[in-house]
Amino acid sequence: MSIPIAPFWGVNGHFTWNNSAGYVPAKWAGNAASMKDLGMLTYRNGYGASNSSSTGAVTSSDGATFRNFINNTATPNGIVVAPVLLPLYQTSWTGGTATEATAYTLGYNLGVDAATNLAGLVPWYEVGNEFDGGQWSDGNIVGGTGRGNVTSDFNNAKFLICRGSIRGMIAGIRSVDTTTPIMQPGGTWLHTAFFDMLRNGSTPSAPTTYDATKIVDWDLSSWHWYLNNYGPNDDIENPTDQGGFNVLAHIAGWGKPIYITECGANAMNGTTAVYANEAAIASAIVGSYLLARFVSVRNTYNIKGVQYYQLVDAAGNSASVSPTDNEMMFGLVASDGTTQKGRYPTVKNFIAANPVTTGITLMASNLKYSANLKNAQQNAITTTVGASALLNLYSGTQPASPDTAITSQVLLATLTCNATFAPSASGGVLTLNSIANGTGLAAAGTGTNATWFRITTSGGTAHIDGTVSTSGSDLNLTNTSIAQNQTISVSSFTFTNGN
C-alpha cells in the first residue's frame, strides 16, 4: 500500500462543515486554489462519526466526504489530506456516562471506520485532538499548576477516559491498516505530562506505577502552539513565565518526528484585541515565535511539518457565530471563502521564501550477500566493541551518528555487556550474550523517558546508536520511563543482517 507524503507547510480546514459558508462543497475548488497559491499543501481536517444508541457501533461517518474531497479535489491539486479522528467518549449507548472501557469501544469503532475508508489515501491517522486540555464538553482536565507538565495537574478519572479512547482508536485502525503511521493526539500548551503518562503506563493517581498493558505509543508526535502577544509565554523554547520549560525539547525526547499540527495568533482575549491590527497579526504569524521559529529549529527537534490554523474564518460548523468571536478570526481567508485577508500575502511570501522539502527517498537495491559475508560483518561488531561493552540509555534526540558527541542528551542508565559480547553470528544474526542489569542514575529523577541507546567500548568509544521505545524500535523496553535506582534489564538483544 502506497502512503502519501505530506508536504512540510500545511493548513487546517473543515471541508466536512456544511454550515460554514467558506467550507461548503461549492467552495472546495476555491479552497484548493488558495492552498496551492499559499504553498500550503497538507490539509488537516477532522473526521467524526455517529454511533448507535443501542450498541455503540458507527452508524454514519465522514468517510464518504473525505474520499470525495481527496479523490476529486485534493489529489488533482497536489494536496494531501491529514485526518484527525474526533471520537465520542459517551453516548446514549453508555447511559450518558463514560469509563475507560466504553471510551475504548467507541474509539475502536471510529478507528475501524476511518481505516476502512482512508487506508492508502492519507499520510497518517491523528488519534484525537487536544485531549490534554479538555477538548471534550465536560471541562478542562488540567488543574494543579495549570501548566500540565507534571502528572498532578490532571484529573485521574478523565485521564483514564481519554486513554481508553486513544487506545481504542489505535487498536481499531491497526485491525484494518497495519502500515499507515499513527500520530499522537494534538497536544497543547505545556501539557507534556499527559503524554508522558500515556507512554509509560502511569496515571495521575499512581504516577510511579506502570501498567505495561495500558502503554500508548505512536509513530509521529503532534503539537499546537498559539500566540497571545506576550513574549514570556509565547516562546515555545523558553516561556519564562512558566519556568522556561522547553516544550520542543521535551517532545523531541519522545524520539518521534514532530508535526506542529495547529499554530496561530489569537486576535481576541474576550472582548479585548490582542494585537493592534491585521498587520500586527500577520507579523506575529511569520515572526520569531511562530513560523520563523519552527522553520529555523526544524532540524534541531526533527520537525517534519507545520500546519497553520486555519484556512477560512469559521467556528463550530455554524452559520450564526459572531464575527468578533476569536475562533472566527484565525483564517487567512474571510468567512465567505473567497476574500483574502491582510495576513494572506504575508504568509504566502514567507512560505515562498522558506521552501522545505520533506519525504523519504527510497533507493532501489537488490544487493545480496553470501552467508559467510553476512556473518563476518556481524562478527566485526563483536571485535569492534570489545569486552564488557557498555549499553547506555539516553533521553533527548538521537544524534546523527555514533561519531556525533553527546550534547544535551541525558544519560539515564548504563548496562554492561558480557565479557564476550556475542558468540559467532549464524545466518547473519548476532545474538548477544547476557547483559548485566543496570540501575537508573540520579539524572533520571522520578522518571524520564529513554528515547535512544548508544553502545560503546568499555572505555567509552561509541560505535552503535539506535532508537528506544516500547515497540517498533531498535531496542524495545516494557517501560521506557527510567527513574533513579530503578532496575533496568534487557532480556535479549540481536543484530540482523537482512541482505
Give the biggest sheet. Answer: 6 strands, parallel
Which CATH first-tier class of the largest domain would you pick?
Answer: Alpha Beta
Shape from CA axes?
A: globular
The CATH architecture category of the largest domain equals Alpha-Beta Barrel
CATH fold node name of the largest domain: TIM Barrel
List low-pLDDT spans: 135-139, 360-365
Number of domains: 2
Question: What gyration radius follows from the Cα positions, in whole Å?
Answer: 24 Å
Q: Level of helix content?
A: 10-25%
Please state roughly what percent of the residues sit in beta strands, choosing from under 5%, 5-15%, 15-25%, 25-35%, 35-45% or over 45%. Answer: 15-25%
Helix-and-strand structural type: alpha/beta
- Average of pLDDT: 91
**Termini distance?**
23 Å
Which characteristics define this entry?
globular; 23 strands; 6-stranded parallel beta sheet; alpha/beta; TIM Barrel; 25% helix; 19% strand; 499 residues
Structure, described:
This protein has helices at 28-38, 63-74, 100-118, 156-174, 192-200, 231-234, 247-252, 278-285, 291-296, 298-301, 343-353, 371-385; strands spanning 9-12, 42-47, 49-51, 58-61, 80-85, 125-126, 182-183, 221-227, 258-265, 268-269, 272-273, 303-308, 390-395, 410-416, 429-431, 438-439, 448-449, 452-456, 462-469, 475-476, 481-482, 487-488, 494-496. The chain is 25% helix and 19% strand. The chain folds into 2 domains: 9-353, Glycosidases (TIM Barrel); 371-496, no CATH class. With 499 residues, it is an alpha/beta fold. The chain contains 12 helices and 23 strands.
